[in-house]
Amino acid sequence: MASTSDIRNGLCIKYNHDIYKIIEFLHVKPGKGPAFVRTKLKSLTTGKVLDNTFSAGHKIEDVRVETHTYQYLYAEGDQFHFMNNETFEQITLNKSILDAPDLLKEGTNVMVQINTETDLPLSVDMPASIILEVTYAEPGVKGNTATNATKSATVETGATVNVPLFINEGDKIKIDTASGSYMERVKE
């Protein structure tokens, strides 16, 4: 059993007969009244996100998890196949477990959290950013770097990302996997 002082991002807990992962949290100490912790929880079975408030000192039941590095192999419909980098064992996960499945490129290493009691995968943590090649974008025009105007571009995984006007087909761009937004152009 853990308490609200142990809450951190990525902690997996049992709550309302389900397993949730804490996405965000904020300790609040109002001037009047007791302290509390405001959290955003993501269900690891359904993928739904809910807001919840725990009073300070509230006991929460945490789930013991192990984290392993897996390599993304391929997708088959809504099923995504991964391979453990140490044991070469393969697992298949549903699309709903993944945070940004449209940004996954074959060969990408991800961190998979596995429940130690049931040996079932709970969640997949993507790298903070990923570098992908732009496969389609409207042509850029010289001098379009002064404003913050954006256009849609399609990357090699099929995802659509808003990029600055100077990005062209064939450019490699760095994308933030948490928000799915453009970070910078990568020159090699």
From TrEMBL:
Its main location: cytoplasm. Pathway: Protein biosynthesis; polypeptide chain elongation. Keywords: Cytoplasm, Elongation factor, Protein biosynthesis. It holds the Pfam family Elong-fact-P_C. GO terms for biological process: peptide biosynthetic process. The keyword Aminoacyl-tRNA synthetase does not apply. SMART domains: EFP, Elong-fact-P_C. The gene is efp. GO terms for cellular component: cytosol. This is Elongation factor P. GO terms for molecular function: translation elongation factor activity. It comes from Flavobacterium sufflavum. The lineage of its organism: Bacteria, Pseudomonadati, Bacteroidota, Flavobacteriia, Flavobacteriales.
